[in-house]
């Protein structure tokens, strides 16, 4: 095989250099996407309607139900760090996806059984005042199923997008262009999974059987796993070289050990052994870490002449720069958390709002959880417009295939903030109707379609911010840390959900009056959810200002001159062959 037919840094299932004509490309990437579609079908099918199950069947208060959902979702995404660490350090992405997708499917099956057995839920309310809350055993079994799902979801999500992008060679201009479109296609397909979850599954949960809906989720996941295994011979694999976490600690430890030494004016005096084509160019940010690459007298003693230096004492410039690259991601990482706090309201309090409003279309009543269909529709419409109109226009005008990842994140933050402002206004209207019609009225005379603006704005925001974050964290991270960086990105979702839980608890405690009610009352008709939404809008504005500063400060990784020369030469060679 010639060098032009071999994918860079990739092997086939037998460990030989990957042949582009036999491995990788759109078909293997699509087989990998099947896992993510079914994972999103299961997770969202559970999350968007879980708050109604916790309140209506398990008889938990509104705020407790909301926090249970956000804690479940937060744990799912927090465990992405574990999945990323295992994939990069030991298992590889393929095995990580296989193991944790199986765990996720088993957890969903257990949830189907838990919601089916009558002994695992409290008896129905004879009168609302006499509702019996679920006991410890009933909640324990529910939590066991949920957090088994969370473990599976967290383990596989960090590897799916990275393994999908592995099917494209970044050094091949044609495949690099295909990878840019892959991220949009990736989010488009998982949004289709979400659409099925908030329509078909939510309807089955509310009108047929929750256990049947969850059983369908489990079965679909097992089918997706089978399809995933069918592509084993066609995938491209990246070898696990070293633990990225250990590498980060080695650089930090070496820099601290040499903290009293001065970095030389000539950066060429810093330690470097990597081949020119694989080096990362030195940058001026985080200069303290450069101390890890300073060569000290005892780094190469007579006993160590034939051996490599201890990486806890001396690191190459490339290794230091890889740690710098991860450090540069952190400010962007921190300023995207608030978006997912906003997102959390769409599957908790917004569903609670919908359950009190008029949802009938003729003789059909829309399930409260299915209002998220407008959220998903906004994502699909936004992605379609961006893919078919904005990207081609931007390429002609600016010569680039669409907005940069940082620009997409910024757009997402703005849209979500406007969405919370719209939500506050709609809730003010809903509360005024509740006051005039009676706060105990089961269905208020106000159309549920007034909630569409908040779902649409936050949904459009997610279309921009999710693809922007995914692109940013994968393309701006070191080659050996891509899965871990994807896990880092997904922890923004986790921390957003956890911050939502914390904020709910703080606001509930701080605004509680002598009558026991506050902004977030147990029954939302007695609270001031509009003020809570307004608070999130204000936090969104402050966060956007901080994000803008961080985005200006951020410096993207420098291209390797040797690699660029190689690409130019390859391009020239290709032109000659044509």
From TrEMBL:
Compartments in which it is found: Membrane
Pfam families for the chain: PTR2 (PF00854)
Membrane-protein topology: Multi-pass membrane protein
Keywords of the record: Membrane, Transmembrane, Transmembrane helix
Transmembrane portions of the chain: 72-90, 97-114, 144-165, 186-205, 211-229, 329-346, 366-386, 406-426, 446-466, 487-511, 531-554
Gene3D superfamilies in the cross-refs: MFS general substrate transporter like domains
One annotated Gene Ontology cellular component of this protein: membrane
Any one GO molecular function term: transmembrane transporter activity
GO aspect biological process, one term: oligopeptide transport
Main location: membrane
PANTHER family on file: OLIGOPEPTIDE TRANSPORTER-RELATED
Family label: Belongs to the major facilitator superfamily. Phosphate:H(+) symporter (TC 2.A.1.9) family.
Full protein name: Protein NRT1/ PTR FAMILY 6.2-like
Organism of origin: Coffea arabica (Arabian coffee)
